[in-house]
Write a structure and sequence with these properties.
Blueprint lengths: L5 E5 L3 H12 L4 E5 L2 H10 L4 E5 L7 H11 L5 E5 L4 H10 L3 E4 L4 H33 L7 H53 L1
Parallel strand pairs: 1-2, 1-3, 3-4, 4-5
Helix pairs in contact: 2-3, 3-4
């Protein structure tokens, strides 16, 4: 069983991949490289990586597109963008996608090791955060073995609101039908009273 942290480096410059391999292999990582975004995504179909580094400018698919594909399928996988000329637009898009940061060329062994360690820390934090969310949700939807009076009152209120909502069109229709009839009744009653008063006076 392979327990080494898995790192994928996607860069059309083979020198960058070799630099990561040379630095990180000595530190106990296993490094895979790809020269295009498409090749990198193909590798991710058959392998699970702890960290992915991707160049931002490559033939075909660029680094932002690669990050978008990775985050849609493996949202907890840290992605770091390698760039020699980062722009605010690229950084804004990367931030929305959840990219863990930018690392700018030229890369030194210290930078490679440091950014990898930071990305690994983020990767370790993600499952813990997910577990907390799941546990919290489970507690909120847990069903009590015995329904208490408060729960029953809430259920009764909800049922009452549903019945009123469903009955409201029929209630409105009843008013529409009843109001004209009530009007005729009131007119007839007033006319009858007036006639009786007139008869009594004469």
């Amino acid at each position: 069983m392979n327990i080494k942290p898995q790192v994928l480096v996607i860069d059309d410059d083979a020198v960058v991949g070799r630099s990561f391999d040379r630095v990180l292999t000595k530190k106990g990582y296993e490094v895979s490289t790809a020269l295009t975004g498409e090749e990198g995504l193909e590798r991710m179909e058959t392998n699970a990586y702890d960290v992915v580094f991707t160049d931002i400018q490559m033939p075909g698919m660029n680094g932002i597109e690669v990050a978008e594909h990775i985050k849609s399928k493996c949202p907890w996988t840290p992605v770091v963008v390698i760039t020699g000329y980062g722009t605010e637009e690229h950084e804004a898009k990367a931030s929305v996608l959840g990219v863990k940061g930018f690392v700018r060329k030229p890369l030194t062994p210290e930078i490679i090791e440091s950014i990898t360690l930071k990305a690994m820390e983020k990767q370790a934090e993600a499952p813990e955060a997910a577990n907390e969310v799941v546990e919290r949700a489970a507690e909120e939807v847990a069903v009590e073995p015995e329904l208490n009076p408060s729960t029953l009152r809430k259920a009764g209120t909800v049922a009452k609101n549903i019945v009123l909502f469903l009955a409201s069109p029929f209630i409105a229709l009843g008013y529409v039908i009843a109001l004209p009839a009530l009007g005729f009744y009131m007119i007839a009653k007033l006319s009858w009273q007036a006639l009786r008063t007139k008869t009594a006076a004469s």
